[in-house]
TrEMBL record:
EC id: 4.1.1.20
Subunit structure: Homodimer.
Designated name of the protein: Diaminopimelate decarboxylase
Gene: lysA
Residue ranges of every copy of the Orn/DAP/Arg decarboxylase 2 N-terminal domain listed in the record: 40-297
Amino acid sequence: MLLGTQKINAQGHLEIGGCDTLALAAEFGTPLYVMDEALVRENCRRFTQVFTDRYPGEVEVSFAGKAFLTMAMVRLVQQEGLALDVASGGELYTALKAGFPAEKILYHGNFKSDEELAMGVAAGVGRFVVDNPYELKRLSELAAAQGKTQAILLRVTPGIDPHTHAKISTGQEDSKFGISVSSGLALATVQEALSLPGIDFKGIHCHIGSQLLDSHTHEDAAEIMVGFVAAIREATGFVCTDLDIGGGLGVRYLPSHNPPSYEEFADSVVSAVVGALEKHALPFPRLMLEPGRALVAEAGTTLYTVGPIKKIELAERTKTFVSVDGGLSDNPRPVMYDARYSVLVAGRAAQATDTTVTVSGKHCETDLLFPELALGEVHSGDILAVQTTGAYNHGMASNYNRFRRPAVVFVHDGQADVVWERESYDDLLRQERLPQRFLEE
């Protein structure tokens, strides 16, 4: 399963963006996150274009920064003309330091502190996506205190089970995110937003879940959301100008995964939205979408070096453990979500995958990265290339066991640029302080 600019070169090595992955591992070390810049740019353009071509009104595509956020990625998003979602003060700070225009930022999160709310208002973010009535009141007070009026969307829960992993389902009634439509609380909160000082209510937002491999739940959500827009108009006379249906489109982690293409996804979503708008005789609002994983996941590859290989003789078979120089700290998703990946031996990328092994990390945990993996011939010193790691791997990386977080390189036309330096051992101690009494003999 070769993705983006990946290919097998004349030496039989996996190549990405014109760069030999064995050469990348030798130059930058492992573990190493490799991002296919050309594929990210192509995805940004295609996703925007397919919706712009199909929807009669205005379209705004925002990159969901939580999937992968560095200053280089922020600049890429800006160059490609997308808006940007942030979900914390740190993500907002990163975007602003990279020079991203604040008016094209959407600020998410179910608990934004007063400091974060005030920071966003002062920066002039384009939209706050308000999650709850408490936040709405605090934002009103803080915006008014700065003498500003803040545009918002209200996040609502359409009450849909997206049938994905429980830990990435967010649109059902018992989600921690958003305000229930069916209970009537969402409408009451809209009415409050329309009356509060410092608040400019623009419309509604939902996000139903992640890694969705069909578009059916997005179609259902679109109908419910447009129905709620109609209910708002009936109850208040206000017509929403913004309708945000979030993200969630899945990607190919395994060859068996078959998510809709961008074109198929746009056909389904736009058809559902337009049909519902016409049913309720509503004007076309700005249609907003928030892809994250769908833009960057398949553009990312993680390189590991193979260390010890251990064979355990069991009664019925031999089990082979292949240890690599990373694990839980650079990819927690197998532990968190039972995530599965496609893996290649980078130096023999076309070899038959006729041997089953279990790839384990080097942490003091049972961090089985890839159990029962059909990998083929593998030796100590080989480089493993794990595909579709461009979303959430870097963002969720940690210093568990005092591991140093890996470097990130963007590859493009045979050039590799470090956009996130590998942490040093000194970096691990940078925040440490020893009280004076610990220094006394």
